[in-house]
Specification:
Helices cover 17% and strands 41% of the residues. With 170 residues, the protein is an alpha+beta fold. Strands 1, 2, 3, 4, 5, 6, 7, 8 and 9 form a 9-stranded mixed beta sheet that branches. Strand 3 and strand 4 form a beta hairpin. It starts with a strand and ends in a 13-residue tail after the last helix. 12% of the residues are buried. GO terms for molecular function: ATPase activator activity. InterPro entries: Ac45_acc_su, VAS1/VOA1_TM, VAS1_LD.
Amino acid sequence: MWPVRIWQASFDSIYSVFLLCRFLMTQKFYKGSARKWFTLDSVEIAHDNQIVARFNVSIISAPAEYSFHCQLVGTSSLYGAKLIPANIEAKNWDVYLSEFQIQGFNIHNNLFSYASDCTSFFSPGIWMGLVTSIVLLWILTYGIHMIMQLTTNSRFDDPKGQVLSVPQTE
C-alpha cells in the first residue's frame, strides 16, 4: 500500500467559526494499467480539531501524475462526483464544491498537472447528436433502398403485349 496523504484547507469567517476540511487520499499501483493511481477516499469537516462530518467519496481517482477535475462535487446526486455521508452528523450537511480540482502526488512548481475530468467523453449533447445522426442516416438509407427497388410495370415495357386501351367515354 502506498502512503496516505492528507490535504487540509481551513476556512475562517467573520464569526470566528473555524472549519477544517481534510481530504484523505491514497496512492496504489494497478497492474492492469501499469501505473500508480491516486484515489480520494474521504472528506472530513472538522471544527476545533473534532471531526464533525465525514463523507466517503465515489468516482474521484486519477493517474498519480495527473490531477482530478470536476465541475461539481457534492452531496446531491445531481453532481458529477458524489460525497456520501459516512456518519450521522454528515447527513445534516449539504456540501457543494464548484470547479473542484485536486492532485495529491507528483506536484511540481505548485501547479496542477494535466487534469483527468469526471465527465465522460460523450456528453449528453454529443449523445443526442449521434443518435439523431444515426436515425437520419437510417431514414436516408431506407429511402434510397426503397427508390432502388422501384420497378415499372412490365405491361408497358413489352412491345409485343396487348395494347393498353383507355376508354374516353363516361
